[in-house]
Amino acid sequence: MTTLVLIEDHPLLQQQAATLLQAAFADITVIGFADAESALAYCEQQAVDVVVTDLSLPGISGMTLLERLHRQQPQLPVILQTLYDLPAHHHLARLLSASCLLDKANMASELVPAVRAALAQAAVKTVMSTGERLS
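Structure (tokenized):
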């Protein structure tokens, strides 16, 4: 079972993303949060396979969340989403090793492939760090 943490403060967008993901992945559990602090506390206590977060959140931002998550779990794939697709966001996302930065306007077409790619990349990193073979 794959566990995905989804942080989105707009309930309708959170529900839309969760619906897309649950339709695309038979073995996924989507855990939703409206703020980064709650999600961070959850990720510190539970095993998580991938995180999808909005950049603009109440309290700490998605970028700050990414930085804190990667301090604790450097291999954890984190996908960022924004309504404001600015070059500065892309630059910061690369610097902080985000899996990718998505424009929410394209969520329906980009979210599922981005999660698939992030999970595949995480699997390769795990194999490389443990020396296991892919089947």
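The helical segments are 11-24, 36-45, 62-72, 87-95, 107-130. The radius of gyration is 14 Å.
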